[in-house]
Amino acid sequence: MTGDLSDTYVAALQHDTADLPADATLVGVVRRPTGWFSAAVDENVPELGPPDGLLDDAKARESELADHGVDDAEANRRAWADVDFAARYRDYLDADGEAQAAVDGLAERLAAGESLALVCFENTDEKRCHRTILRNRLADRLTG
Question: Where is the DUF488 domain (predicted)?
């Protein structure tokens, strides 16, 4: 039996608005978690956060767009496209040994029946987030 796989953002956990299985282990996927983030999750797997260069590129592009009057959510969407965030994050997951081992570990836990909820900072109702790519990668591993 495969465990349930879901994702959410830390503010939804803090405000008790996340719709997750009651038995889900909350797995942070943040490269540099804050203390309050760490307190909200059961564990954090920093190897599954986007690499620094990718985050830096995306944030710099978002800032440029915001400086030109683009609203926050739209700047995020456009920056993702402009820096090819999704493809670069997938490439990172495929190429980095520590990220591969972390994905393998989560996939094994899911295959063994553990329910997992991936957690980071971004509200995906408003912005794009790497955890959705990661969730899809894990789901593909379990069905493929």
Answer: 20-141
